[in-house]
Amino acid sequence: MEYNLLSVTLNPSLDREFVIENFESGNLFRINNPSNSNMEPGGKGINVSLMTSDLGVTSINMGFLGGFIGNVIQTKMSNIKNITTNFIYCTEETRENIEIIDPVQNKISEINSMGPFIHDEDLKHFLKRYKSALNLVDHVLISGSIPPDIPISFYSELFSYAKKQGKTTYMEAVGPHFDEAIRENCPMIVRPDLRKSSRILGNNLETPEDYIKTGKEIIKAGARLVVMSYHVVGDIVVTEDGAWLFTATEDIDRSHLFGTGDAFMSGIVYYIINNGFDYLEAAKYGMAAAMSSTNYIAKILGTEEEIERSKTKFSIERIG
Amino acid sequence: MEYNLLSVTLNPSLDREFVIENFESGNLFRINNPSNSNMEPGGKGINVSLMTSDLGVTSINMGFLGGFIGNVIQTKMSNIKNITTNFIYCTEETRENIEIIDPVQNKISEINSMGPFIHDEDLKHFLKRYKSALNLVDHVLISGSIPPDIPISFYSELFSYAKKQGKTTYMEAVGPHFDEAIRENCPMIVRPDLRKSSRILGNNLETPEDYIKTGKEIIKAGARLVVMSYHVVGDIVVTEDGAWLFTATEDIDRSHLFGTGDAFMSGIVYYIINNGFDYLEAAKYGMAAAMSSTNYIAKILGTEEEIERSKTKFSIERIG
């Protein structure tokens, strides 16, 4: 195939970081060191493309970009090896996620904007391009939030085309569009995004039993691998063969945990593209990639050797 | 002449505004209404070009732009009527002035970045282009801060070329580069930027007498008109003929006072381009433009009629 991965991010963002000591509202702060100000393309699909690009995974990136912020993302991504962009342009501004990180008070302040309104025509245009892009890849990842005006059936619809063509499908998201995709056209690899909601398919995820039950429901719907983050440093992994609890056994700098979900999915994508369908092994590789990525602030997994070494940094316990 | 004004902003900024109610550090805030997020090109020279462009003043804009933020400014300005851009490009990012405006707590939080490092070559390149641009205009405005690595004699040097060619020269700034320009190659219209410092030519500006004394020093150095903001809603104006206190007689929404200095200078520039050298009248028009601009949040003076009507909104008292 021409590319490894088709990566869909319907609602990309420009992720901005400002490191400011003792940040408080009502004052003026100057950033005199350029390394305390950072901007990177973001959104869950784009993050996986960025993180796997270093390891040689080639991806086509699709979704909607708009305005000046959209141009910044387009330009930044055009300069990254192994990344091809194929975004639909709209007039309103792409969203920004601004984080003000205060390392002294150990606080993060966030300002998130909304993202552009997607017109029906743009949606049709996207769908047409998506269908032709499917012919260029074996793996399709659709992740993140959907713009509010897009029908919640849209993820399900996108997966239906990919599945008909026998593609390997991946999803990380949460919300009604996620639930509907699971029920109607379940992708093969599923990672609920539990940062903002612990409600999946109508279940509230609290105890390990809740996780295992929900994981099994998703497997029954057609998934082959379900990964759910459990508390801060654990993950519950469910396949057709059972359920496992992965637990980090090394201390992790908590300020580096941001984005480990994307790193986990990136590890899985990389593993399956290169080694095929051993789902438990893919999940172990994902966990190792997530552990390895905590060594970096940027959207980087580390080298293959670093990921390999990180396999010793977590324990695996069969729980179902 | 081909253009009315050559407008120099050595250190432009992208001015960003986020309106967030009850903004406090450590929390997540969502901007769901696009009108609560705004970005405009900024820097004192650019502001005058933006404000006068609506009234038909054509300007060439020079200075240094860099990185993604520089591109946003370039693109935004390219789309504005009567504005021509002729910036030198550098690799580091242009600065951003981020304002988080909290209308509930009546607080403003600001994050200002630094702007790019200017290499000697870029400075030479700028000077070459500046000299040829001088041939296209009668009026030259040089305003705002200078990047830290540029010699403090640079403003003075720029004004010396403009004065040799008989251009009408304008400056609004503060600091050693401002003082040196006054002493060595004093421009014709001078507005000290008193927001950040009240120290001008070694004098501390406190009483009206301090203002008049300093204004007369600047006139003696070669200026024909000096305008100094006095407290929040007044301005002291000094010409060869005397000194006047302008005082707003209407209540002004204080949240709209931001940028009235640029509006004042814009009114003066517009008046002199269209009516010639009646300096006290030019200052009155500047004050009226400043009053009129408080009706807008964006960088807008209002129509000629609105400015004319604003002439009744302040009193004039001779004080020296």
User: Percent of residues of chain A in beta strands?
Assistant: 25-35%
Q: List the secondary-structure elements of chain A in sequence, H or E.
A: EEEEHEHEEEEHEHEHEEEHEEEHHHE
| Poorly predicted ranges of chain A | none
What's the helix count of chain A?
A: 9
Mean pLDDT of chain A: 94
Largest interface: A-B, 33 and 33 residues
Instruction: State Rg of chain A.
Output: 19 Å
Oligomer: homodimer
**Helicity range of chain A:** 25-40%
SSE topology sketch:
Two copies of one chain form a homodimer.
Chain A: E1 5-9, E2 13-19, E3 28-31, E4 37-42, H1 44-53, E5 59-66, H2 67-78, E6 83-85, E7 88-90, E8 95-102, E9 107-113, H3 120-134, E10 139-143, H4 154-164, E11 168-173, H5 176-185, E12 189-192, E13 199-200, E14 203-204, H6 208-220, E15 225-230, E16 234-239, E17 242-248, H7 260-275, H8 279-293, H9 304-309, E18 314-318
Parallel strand pairs in A: 1-5, 1-10, 2-8, 5-6, 5-7, 10-11, 11-12, 12-15
Antiparallel strand pairs in A: 2-4, 8-9, 13-14, 15-16, 16-17, 17-18
Helix pairs in contact in A: 1-7, 4-5, 7-8
